[in-house]
Amino acid sequence: MNTPAPPLARQLRDATRDAHRDLDHHPALQCLLATTLTREAYVASLLALYPAHAALEHRVCREIARLGLSLQVPRRLPHLADDIETLGLAPEASASDPGHPPGSLATLAGELYVLEGSRLGGRVIAERLRRTLGPDVPHAFFSLDMAPGEWQRRLAELEALCPPGNQDAAVVGAREAFVRFRHQLDTRFRAIPTHPAPAVETGPAVDL
Ligand code: HEM
């Protein structure tokens, strides 16, 4: 039987449902699920994901260190860099996040929810990639799956991390993390057409 999600987890899910839908419909991510995906379009998507994921992962890890916590968070950025490099490109160094002030335990709980939750869609994406681009396509970033019970344990950790009465601050942390992620995709994604360009009407030939 599934354990019911802790209250903060339910609040975070409800408060960010629209933000998630918005993000997973972003062209940079939607193209990953398209049957017409090409390797070029896949690389374009990974190149946009790199700075978005880097900013979130760095921020969460920095805050964990700053607040002296012993939370363990798997680093997925090196896998993303490896995938991009195996596909023949170099990931662009992520800009640090100088303007963003330090947060609190509650905002960290919200940000960690977004970072770790983003692993949940990976299995679906990895399966699609194997089907459209073949079993050899590098997709380590999307393949760091959650072990059984891992997400439930993470949600319990978030519940314990967020001080009582600070759930709204956790929601703000999660919402802002989604907004920043989306902003990175908006600014860094260069769409590659996945369909051949339509034939251009050239009109009758003219003798020169
Ligand atoms: C095409 C891209 C994506 C797909 C297909 C996708 C798909 C999914 C799926 C299927 C789940 C639910 C898994 C389950 O309940 O077992 C999920 C959960 C989640 N995803 Fe995504 N996702 C995508 C991108 C992202 C991104 C980029 C982020 C954040 C940066 C994100 C954050 C989350 C979070 C926080 C949850 C947890 C929701 C909850 O509380 O249940 N996802 N995603």
From TrEMBL:
Top-level division of the source organism's lineage: Bacteria
Protein name: Heme oxygenase
GO BP terms in the entry: heme oxidation
CDD domains registered for this protein in UniProt: HemeO-bac
Alphabetized InterPro entries for the sequence: Haem_Oase-like (IPR016053), Haem_Oase-like_multi-hlx (IPR016084)
Organism of this sequence: Halomonas daqiaonensis
GO molecular function: heme oxygenase (decyclizing) activity
